[in-house]
Amino acid sequence: MRATASATPTHTPVPKRSAFARTLPFWLLLPGLLIIAAIQLYPSLFTFYLSVQRIEPGTGRYVFRGLDNFARLLSTQQFQESLAHTVLFLGGYCAFTLACALGIALLLRQRVRLSPLYITLIFVPWVLSDVVAGVIWRLFVVPEYGLFSPFFANPDLFGGSRGISILTSPAAPSILGDLPFPPAPALIFLMLASAWKILPFTTLLILAALQTVPQEVLESGSIDGATGRQSFRYITLPLILPTLAVTLFNLTLGGINGVGMVFSLTGGGPGTATEVLSYLLYSIGFARLDFGLAAALSTLMSMLNLVLVVSTLRLTGVQED
Amino acid sequence: MATTVKSLTPSPFHLPKRARSVLLNLALILVCMLMLFPVFSTLVLSFKQQSDVRSLPPRLFPCNTATDTFDLAACRFFGEGYERVFLAKPSPNALLGFQITGRIFSTYLPNTVLYAFATAFFVTIISAMSAYVYSRYRFRGRRALMIALLVLAGVPVLTMLLALQQTANGIRRIIPGYEERIFMIIVYVGLELPFAIWVVKGFFDTIPKELEEAALIDGCSRFGALVRVVAPLATPGLMSIFLLAFVNVWNEFIVNYLLMSKQNLRGAMYGVFDFIAQSLSSYNALAAACVLVMVPVIVVFLFTRRVFFRAMVEGAIKG
Fold first, then answer.
1. Sequence-ordered list of residues with C-beta below 8 angstroms from that of B218, at least 6 positions apart, any chain
2. pTM, two decimal places
3. A166 lies in a domain?
4. Considering the domain boundaries, does residue B277 fall inside one?
5. Does B30 touch chain A if contact means CB atoms closer than 8 Å?
6. Number of folded domains in chain B?
7. Chain B interface test: which of A8, A34, A44 (most B C-beta within 10 Å)
C-alpha cells in the first residue's frame, strides 16, 4: 500500500521534500486503517474463524470442526422459526416503508412553499434511538392503560379475546402449515414501529432521486398528452428505479441487522414470536454463550449482507474517482 | 410551470391551482401529524400524574372534567414523572442544595455525553485525514480499500461484538484497573469511521484542486494545504459528520450494553432500557425518561437540519 504522489502536479515548485512530506499520505491513512482493522476487520475475521471451531469442553481449546456448527444451526427449530419471522418482517417492513415513502416523496416534490418545514418535521423520528422508539411504541399498547390498548384488545375487531396486550397475544393458528403465517400481532406492531422510524430516511432518499428527474422531460411528456399517471409510470418510475432498488437494499440491511427495537419493544416475545435472526444471534451468542453457533449464524448473515452490499455497489456504480 | 403546461391537457384529476395547493398542504400536514404523534403523545404522557396514567379508558389529554367532558381549564399536568427520574434529594453540600440521585442523570447521561463528544471529535479528524488521501492521491489498492470500507458496513455489528467482547474481557484480565471508557470510545470511532470517510471524501471531491495548488505554489506544504485550505472549505461537511457521529453514538445501545461490564460505565440508552423494568406501570416516569434523552438530539437536529440532510444524501447516494 505504498502511496505514490503522482497526483501532485509536476509544475509544483517544491525542490526538496522531506521524508515526512513524501510519505504524508501513508501517515494520514494510518490511524483510520489501524482503528478500522482493530475494531471491524479483525473481529469479523475472528468470528468467521470461530464458526468452524468448537471449544473443547475439558480443555477450553478451539478445535476445528468444519461445518459442524452450520449443520447444528440449520437443524435447530429455533433457527428455522426466526428465519421465517425475519422473512415475514422484512417483507412487510420493506413494502410498507417503500410505499409510504414514495407517496410522501411525491407529495413533497410538488413545489409546496412550506416543504422544507414539512421535511424537517417528518424527519424527527429518524433522530430518535431504537430503544426510545421502541419504548414509545410500547407505551401505546401497555396492558389496559396504553392509548391503543382498547383498540387492539377489542374482540370484535381482532376475533375473540387474545390476551390483554398486543405484545402478549399469541399468533392466530397458522394457515400455511409450518410457516408462522399470519404472524403474531406483536410482529406486525414491530413492523409498524420500525417503519415509522426509518420512513423519514427512505423518504429523503426517494425525494432526492425524484428531484433529479428533469422537469423538461416531464413537461414535454405532458405536451405530448401524457396524463399524470402515465408520466409517472413511463418517465419518473424508470428514472428512479435504481434509487428504489438501492433504498430497498438499504432497508433490508437495516432490517436484518437492527436489534435495538426488538429489545425495547417486544424482547423477542411473546414466546419467540418476534425473535428475528439478529435477536437470535444475540440470544445464542450473548445469553447462551454458544460462540460457535453464534459465529455460524453471524457468518450466514454476513454473507447475506455481502450480497446486498455488492448489489448496491453494482447499481450505484461507484466510480473510480 | 408544470401546472400551466398540464392545464392544456384535460385530466380527470384537474383541479384549480388554489384547491390543489390546499389539498397538498392538508395531506402533508396530516403526514406530519401522523409522524409526530408518537413523540407528542409521549410528551403528554410524561406530564400526567399517576391517577391520569391509569384512567380507563385511556385518554390522550388529562383534561376531562368530573362529568367526562373535555375542558381545557381542567387540564392536569404535573412533573411527577420527572421527579421519579431525577429523584432529587436535599443535600447540604451540593451546589443547588439538592442532589440528583436518579441514575439516568447522575450516571448514564454524563457517560453518553462523554462517549458522543469524544467519538464525534476523533471521527471528524481521522475521517478528514483519510478522506483527503482518498480524494487527492491515486495509488494502487485505493479503490479496493474504499470498497472494503463499504463491505465492512455490511457485517452485522453483533458479529463484531462476539469477538470484541472477548477482546474486552481479555484486556480487563491482563490490565486490571484500566480505563474501560477509552476502549468504548475507540470501538465507537472504529464503527463510525467507514461511513464517515465516504461522506467526507464526497465533500472533499467537490473542493476544486486549483485552490490547493495555488497554496502549494505559494510555498505551503501538502499538510499545510489540508489544514489551511481544504479543511476550512469543507467545514460544513466536517460539521455534518461530527453531528451525525454524535447523534449515532448518543442513540447507540447494544454495543455499549454488551461491552461495558460495569453498569456505571453504560450510557443513557441503557438507562432507558433499564428503566422499562424498574418503572412497572409508572408509565409517566418511563415517558419522562424517554423525553429527557430524546430532547437533546431533537433540538440539535432542529437547529442543524441542513447540515444533517447534506450528510445523509451525500452518504446514501454514494454508499
1. none
2. 0.86
3. yes
4. yes
5. no
6. 2
7. A44
